Amino acid sequence: VVDAENLGKSYRMGEVPVNALAGVNLKLFQGEFATVMGASGSGKSTLLSIVGCLDRPDSGSYLLMGKRVDGMDDRDLARVRNRNIGFIFQTFNLLPRATSLQNVELPLMYGGVPGKERRQRALAILDRVGLASRAHHRPSQLSGGERQRVAIARALVTDPSLLLADEPTGNLDSVTGRSIMDLIRQVHNEGNTILLVTHDPLVAAMGSRMIRLGDGRVLEDTGS
Amino acid sequence: VVDAENLGKSYRMGEVPVNALAGVNLKLFQGEFATVMGASGSGKSTLLSIVGCLDRPDSGSYLLMGKRVDGMDDRDLARVRNRNIGFIFQTFNLLPRATSLQNVELPLMYGGVPGKERRQRALAILDRVGLASRAHHRPSQLSGGERQRVAIARALVTDPSLLLADEPTGNLDSVTGRSIMDLIRQVHNEGNTILLVTHDPLVAAMGSRMIRLGDGRVLEDTGS
Ligand SMILES: Nc1ncnc2c1ncn2[C@@H]1O[C@H](COP(=O)(O)OP(=O)(O)OP(=O)(O)O)[C@@H](O)[C@H]1O
Ligand SMILES: Nc1ncnc2c1ncn2[C@@H]1O[C@H](COP(=O)(O)OP(=O)(O)OP(=O)(O)O)[C@@H](O)[C@H]1O
Ligand SMILES: [Mg+2]
Ligand SMILES: [Mg+2]
């Protein structure tokens, strides 16, 4: 599913470059559940956004589902992303002027799903994350953990074969967090591939492979 | 320090009102370290923003440092807040076009602190949260946990006598999280009062009093 070699990503800040990624190799096979841990600033979100085709590496090669991503134009990239990938952002990235329901329907709209089916699927997944009673709230009218769950619902509504989750339980109490991890495990049990960043060792233990990043490098990978 | 009785806060969403707070009593004494826990959506951030004078209750009374807050105009409220309170937001609330340093200097600027001292104090606290090398990054050029630490530095730079922290370790790995809790404990040891919302039982255990919210009410308060 994911075949990345020697990924590099560096930001020029004045004289000192910040090497967010300094040569990361990652092979992910269909149906794997891998977790990524590492200190704050170690490059986890940068790695996830490159794997999710939301950012391009400065060096290295990346094949997604066997295709070279670096060679694609933005439109092809957006189509591959919409069809195969679900992305749960660390900062949620919800449209501020849209309701929970509209935010969750958005990826289905990109994918050309008709209105009635879109609404039903979006309401169903909002119900599964416990937010049926918050469907018409806008993000500013929700709590932190409720926003996070809308972002999770939006990532799952397209039934993605690759789910990329960045700290999906960071703003949730342990009971709500556990129900979200049950949902993610269900997605995994249906044969999909999961790459999940977390600071919580209890969440990381739910995967079958653990990758530890430090200063933009892979320090440990139990599955490679 | 804080004397709140029968606080109510409700949002009108269409026909169904959302009672974020439904009659909360909270007395907090100088030098206490209280933590607040509760399910996602139970009213923790709403309570904290009323205690921090960032939002007004719909009902109930609130005395801060012995003064009735409900009777104050916005300017007096802002002055009381800037002089006494440090607030760590769950969503960080950093100015997007300002650097880490400028964000941390902001409360000192409101307080009329001269430029040179402002800069020194802001750099010192940024160094204490481990971000001296990120002083000139803007929020979009920082990782999630780095943004959270800038928000923490901004709350501490004024040496507040009341620190209100909403999930201060939600985006941090355990090592970084522990160093932030050490910093918060130091603020407490200097005789200041702490009210801290968290989902992490390990963080909650660092306080001497635990308040549990559910559906906008106090279910349990080990200190009252
Ligand atoms: N502006 C608003 N309009 C309507 N409802 C709101 C608004 N702000 C908050 N709410 C609702 O009030 C309830 C309490 O919100 P609050 O942010 O205090 O919860 P919380 O305990 O901090 O949750 P979390 O742990 O998820 O951050 C939530 O159910 C939320 O949907
Ligand atoms: N646009 C940018 N410009 C400059 N530096 C950046 C930019 N984006 C990220 N960085 C830096 O790259 C490093 C890695 O960032 P990244 O967001 O991947 O970390 P992370 O492991 O996700 O951290 P966290 O656990 O705090 O979310 C950080 O030190 C950050 O300051
Ligand atoms: Mg991150
Ligand atoms: Mg909250």
Fold and architecture overview:
2 copies of one chain form a homodimer. By secondary structure, chain A is of the alpha/beta class. Helix content of chain A is 34%, strand content 29%. Chain A is built from 7 helices and 10 strands. The model of chain A has no long low-confidence stretch (mean pLDDT 95). At the A-B interface, α5 and α6 of A face α5 and α6 of B. One magnesium ion binds next to α1 of chain A.
Shape of chain A: globular
Please, what is the average pLDDT of chain A?
95
Count the beta strands of chain A: 10
Arrangement of strands in the largest sheet of chain A: 6-7-8-3-9-10
Task: Please indicate the percent range of residues of chain A in DSSP E strands (runs of 2 or more).
Answer: 25-35%
Order of helices and strands of chain A: EEEHEEHEHHHEHEHEE
Oligomerization state? homodimer
| Total of DSSP H or I helical runs spanning 4+ residues of chain A | 7
Distance between the termini of chain A: 14 Å
Radius of gyration of chain A: 17 Å
Q: Give the cofactors and ligands.
A: adenosine-5'-triphosphate, magnesium ion
Helix-residue proportion of chain A = 25-40%
Kindly name the structural category of chain A: alpha/beta
- Main beta-sheet strand count, sense and barrel state of chain A: 6 strands, mixed
Low-confidence stretches of chain A: none
Q: What pair of chains forms the biggest interface?
A: A-B, 35 and 35 residues
